[in-house]
Amino acid sequence: MKSQFMENRTARLTILIDPRKKALFDEICAQQDLTPSQVVRKLIRQYIVDNAAGRELPEWLPANATRNADNR
Known about the structure:
Order of helices and strands: HHH
Number of helices: 3
Structural class: mainly alpha
Number of strands: 0
Largest sheet: none
Strand content: under 5%
Shape: elongated
Radius of gyration: 14 Å
Helix content: 40-55%
Distance between the termini: 13 Å
């Protein structure tokens, strides 16, 4: 069942990263039983919440979403 906060995952984000950092990132994600995509989505959500600068957050992105719903 989909959560009301489940995101549509149709957009792709491509980044370039040092292979050593990527390998370490993947290892840490695996230790925490998270996929790299889950962690990146969490980081993006938190960045939006932290830097909204007076903008009203959309209903689907409440300020506490990153703290309560990310360890899926």
